[in-house]
UniProtKB/TrEMBL annotation:
Residues 376-611 form the Xaa-Pro dipeptidyl-peptidase C-terminal domain. GO terms for molecular function: hydrolase activity. Pfam families: Peptidase_S15. Residues 1-30 form the signal peptide. SUPFAM superfamilies: alpha/beta-Hydrolases (SSF53474), Galactose-binding domain-like (SSF49785). This is CocE/NonD family hydrolase. It comes from Nocardioides lentus. Keywords: Hydrolase, Signal. The keyword Signal applies.
Length: 651
């Protein structure tokens, strides 16, 4: 969490790991709250309560240091549609208005809807001082929203903070909440009727859903590092990820946070709703675990990429191509389906905000200055009708060398072609433990390998693709790679392809520099039961190095499978080679369920979109500090090169 002003008391963030269980909420009398829409105003000082009062009785920073400078804070409750809930749901909103404006002065509204606005903390209890969430104080203070004449509205999703109802993981209930929140913000007497949404991570997803649902009054959306489809966060083409149970358990914990001792009785009752309704928590865990196929109705309802078809709300996006948290999966589909004006910052970084500063280097985490200035030019245009004096590029994109370019859209492919990969076979053995590598008979059962084969795997030192999760809450950076350089055993890409658990296809050296863009798609014609891991590598023959540039996994059907990898933007230098690996899931962020059987790949076609670099138009920006970390963590020796069997399409 980022704070730009001190809390009323010192507080520490109780981080919620992806595998965390539910936290115990503080004791409170928990009953279903009343549904009156009259405002409840907290003030005049932190910890004191006025249970009701006019909307003009706002609280300023002089009265409560938890309120942003220049803002007047009030609380409100609004009714939500009852979609997905057997009981009446009431949503809670914190409203921050410019303190120097009359209560009736109309302003545009910047709205965020999400699970992180509990007064006591975002993902864990961090304070007992009643105050609005500081989640987007960086925007409020950094963009001078109060001075610019904007109102900020923070609405708790159902089941979180001061909102009642069962948490719903972007289902029909939460989609109804988004509509209700936009409608409410549009129709307030202090609103011009122009609403923009803002968020990062989960509340960036609610922004994308706002664009999809297109409620009256929504004019613009800023979404940083969102999910483009809810399914790939827990599964990859029917293969569960390690956070399959951890993520729903973590959000169960967040939903179970209580309010502060200074909150109104109504807020505290609402904040205790999930602990008084354990069936909500049980349903959230069950629904996310039993629905494993992206064609299940549960996930079709939560596919915002598909629902973006024809949407026209203007968007301003950020996305890290090397993200290990909210990955660029279904991103190309979303952007293709969305028809409205779209802008974005894309590049090689982790789960960070556009304005964020890297604590290790002091550099901007994404490498480009003036994020808030661009955001406000975007909002001023769409919410105030002000044409900007500065013309920003539609898309500012950082490549894998750290250089920034401007282009009118993304992806911008010169051509898309299918290349044929060589056939082969592999044993779907999954990750091998140390006992199997030593040839232990009992440990080898189910791997499909005999002791001699296991020794070959150990001797070739197959690189582990292990997720390394650093400390921090669910909304902060999560590093994923082959393991850091210090943790990784010496290995070579070429050696990994000689073991019976995988095989590789090498391209011929590139005749010219070529950018791979968009989302590659692999079509496999296979025989044999099992799972498959497909990886793409950039091999630099001069340096004898190979860098992992894309990967994904899938459960195979009886005859194979066609599936997408991740969205990418990676430039291969002249003379480099593209290597595609096909084999068992030997690590990474997936719960591999190996069949122990041999899978025969009778045919494999890889669809690639390529772009020339000759017409790149430079724009301002420095390399993201995350780029060097990614290259370090995902680069191994290339080893002895193989004969090339395909040619990368020429742009």
């Amino acid at each position: 969490m980022r704070l730009t002003r001190p809390l009323a008391t010192a507080a520490s963030l109780a981080a919620v790991a992806l595998a965390a269980g539910a936290l115990t909420a503080p004791g409170a009398t928990a009953t279903t709250p009343a549904t009156s829409t009259a405002p409840a105003v907290v003030g005049p000082a932190a910890g004191t309560v006025a249970t009701a009062g006019p909307i003009t009785d706002g609280v300023t920073t002089d009265e409560n240091p938890g309120v942003p400078e220049g803002a007047s804070w009030t609380e409100h409750y609004l009714p939500a549609a009852q979609a997905g809930s057997p009981t009446r749901v009431t949503l809670h909103a914190d409203v921050l208005r410019p303190a120097d404006l009359p209560a009736t002065r109309r302003t545009p509204v910047i709205l965020s809807v999400g699970p992180y606005f509990n007064h006591s903390g975002q993902t864990g209890r961090e304070t007992d001082e009643v105050q609005p969430s500081s989640r987007f104080d960086d925007l409020i203070d950094g963009a001078r929203l109060m001075e610019r004449g904007y109102t900020v509205v923070l609405v708790d999703n159902r089941g979180f903070g001061g909102s009642t109802g069962c948490l719903d993981w972007l289902g029909a209930g939460e989609q109804a909440d988004i509509r209700a929140a936009v409608r409410w913000a549009k129709n307030q007497p202090w609103s011009t009727g122009k609403v923009g949404m803002y968020g990062k991570s989960y509340d960036a997803v609610t922004g994308l859903w706002g664009a999809d649902l297109d409620p009256d009054g929504l004019e613009a959306v800023v979404a940083q590092e969102p999910l483009w489809d809810m399914y790939p966060y827990l599964y990859s083409h029917d293969v569960p990820r390690y956070n399959q149970t951890g993520t729903p358990n973590a959000y169960n914990s967040i939903a179970s946070l209580g309010g502060t001792s200074g909150d109104t009785p109504r807020y505290r009752r609402a904040a205790a709703y999930e602990t008084e309704h354990p069936e909500c928590l049980a349903r959230n865990l069950r629904d996310n675990v039993v629905n494993t196929d992206d064609d299940d109705p549960y996930w079709r309802l939560r596919d915002q990429a598909a629902k973006a078809q024809g949407a026209t709300t203007p968007l301003f996006l950020t996305q890290g191509f090397t993200e290990s948290n909210t990955k660029p999966e279904e991103m190309t589909t979303y952007l293709r389906n969305h028809r409205g004006p779209t802008r974005g910052w894309f590049g090689p970084w982790e789960h960070v905000r556009g304005n964020e500063v890297d604590p290790g280097t002091g550099e901007l985490s994404q490498g480009r200055t003036n994020y808030f200035a661009e955001v406000m030019r975007f909002y001023d245009r769409h919410l105030k009708g002000l044409e900007p004096a500065v013309k920003d590029p539609a898309f500012a994109i950082q490549d894998n060398f750290g250089a920034w370019r401007a282009q009118p859209t993304w992806p911008l492919a010169d051509r898309t072609e299918v290349v044929a990969l060589r056939p082969g076979s592999y044993v779907d053995a999954g990750p091998l433990d140390a006992l199997a590598a030593r040839g232990d008979g009992a440990a080898l059962r189910g791997t499909g390998l005999d002791p001699a084969q296991a020794r070959r795997v150990a001797e070739r030192r197959v690189p582990p693709r292990v997720v390394r999760r650093e400390g921090g809450d669910m909304d902060q950076a999560v590093r994923s790679a082959l393991g850091t350089a210090a943790e990784r055993d010496a290995t070579t890409l070429a050696a990994a392809g000689t073991v019976p658990t995988s095989y590789q296809t090498w391209s011929r050296p590139l005749a010219r520099e070529t950018r791979l863009t968009g989302t590659p798609e692999i079509a496999l014609d296979t025989r044999g039961e099992g799972q498959v891991h497909v990886s793409m590598w950039d091999v630099d023959p001069a340096a004898d190095t190979a860098t992992l540039i894309n990967e994904n996994v899938a459960e195979l059907t009886g005859t194979g499978r066609t599936f997408e990898l991740k969205g990418m933007d990676w430039t291969l230098r002249k003379g480099h080679r593209l290597v595609v690996g096909i084999g068992t899931i030997d690590g990474g962020s997936w719960r591999a369920l190996p069949s122990g059987r041999t899978v025969t790949v009778r045919g494999a076609d890889l669809r690639l979109a390529v772009q020339s670099t000759a017409d790149d138009r430079a724009t301002r920006g420095e390399p993201s500090p995350w780029l060097a970390r990614y290259l370090e963590d995902n680069t191994v020796p290339a080893g002895t090169p193989r004969a090339g069997t395909f040619t990368v399409p020429r742009p």
